[in-house]
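Quick review question:
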């Protein structure tokens, strides 16, 4: 059995028109089983097109793709898949319980297991107290949680979540994040599409940023947000001679905070140079409180790369 949940080779989609629209340019993407993968990009970048191709909702113009080794043209490839679409709708007259039992039937869950599975998922997404209320009376956050429950009905090995925290309050976002982490711990592959970059940064093992149908960044969050060979230092105040000795390595002046400690950013060629700088600090009587690799936020990286000319990853 393959260890890849998703494997694409030259997958592309062009919509006919005058002129034609290249919604997704040839894409090679491998997502390992058990990964939590985040797909990012501005509107029109090709994110929805990629998901539609993988789920058989659109047909590729070129290339190929597999889900757990099965070609996406094979309906059986989608049997172990769950999907939460953006802007999903449920019959407003059905209760949450009836909605889940309906999706259980469509997912092929045995009739005898449907009530129990529905109750289990209502508990998972904290909707037990509203189980018999019509979905038409639900808030946006409640509808999102019901949508996640239906996506998990068939106990998927791969689940696509499109904006799962849309309209959800901070408490609900944390609960959804915890649920995603639990899925990851259970070995479920999660394909996350979200504009809440802080949430993606917290839960995803790898991310890709699409722009104009092209992946322009791909890798772990840690690797993508690391700012070269830079470190943030928290120390006692730096004597002027020490700051002068660091010279250009001190990317920003050491700023003293009310707690009496100084925060500074140093850029050095390697770890050996960092240790030499720390030795100089200690020799000058500077007390070192903390040293950590400097990172920019995923949001900062995203804005940087989508506002500059695209260079394929």
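Suggested answer, residue by residue:
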């Amino acid at each position: 059995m393959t260890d890849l949940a998703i494997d694409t080779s030259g997958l592309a989609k062009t919509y006919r028109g005058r002129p034609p629209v290249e919604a997704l340019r040839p894409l090679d993407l491998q997502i390992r089983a058990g990964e939590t993968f985040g797909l990012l990009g501005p509107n029109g970048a090709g994110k929805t097109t990629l998901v539609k191709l993988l789920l058989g909702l659109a047909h590729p113009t070129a290339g190929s793709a597999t889900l757990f080794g099965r070609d996406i043209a094979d309906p059986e490839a989608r049997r172990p898949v769950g999907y939460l679409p953006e802007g999903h709708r449920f019959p407003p007259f059905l209760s949450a319980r009836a909605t889940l039992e309906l999706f259980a039937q469509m997912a092929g869950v045995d009739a005898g297991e449907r009530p129990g599975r529905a109750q289990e998922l209502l508990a998972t997404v904290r909707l037990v107290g509203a189980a018999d209320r019509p979905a038409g009376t639900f808030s946006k956050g409640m509808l999102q949680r019901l949508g996640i429950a239906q996506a998990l009905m068939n106990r998927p090995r791969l689940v696509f979540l499109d904006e799962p925290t849309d309209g959800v309050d901070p408490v609900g976002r944390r609960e959804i994040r915890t649920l995603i982490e639990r899925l990851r711990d259970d070995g479920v592959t999660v394909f996350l599409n979200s504009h809440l970059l802080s949430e993606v940064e917290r839960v995803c093992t790898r991310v890709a940023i699409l722009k104009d149908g092209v992946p322009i960044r791909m890798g772990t969050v840690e690797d993508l947000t690391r700012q070269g060979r830079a470190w943030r230092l928290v120390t006692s105040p730096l004597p002027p001679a020490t700051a002068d000795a660091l010279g250009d390595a001190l990317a920003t002046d050491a700023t003293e905070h009310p707690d009496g400690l100084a925060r500074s950013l140093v850029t050095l060629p390697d770890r050996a140079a960092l240790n030499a700088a720390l030795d100089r600090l200690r020799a000058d009587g500077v007390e070192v409180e903390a040293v950590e690799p400097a990172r920019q936020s995923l949001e900062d990286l995203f804005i940087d790369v989508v506002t500059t000319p695209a260079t394929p990853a």
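Why it works: The mean pLDDT is 87. The two ends are 29 Å apart (CA to CA).
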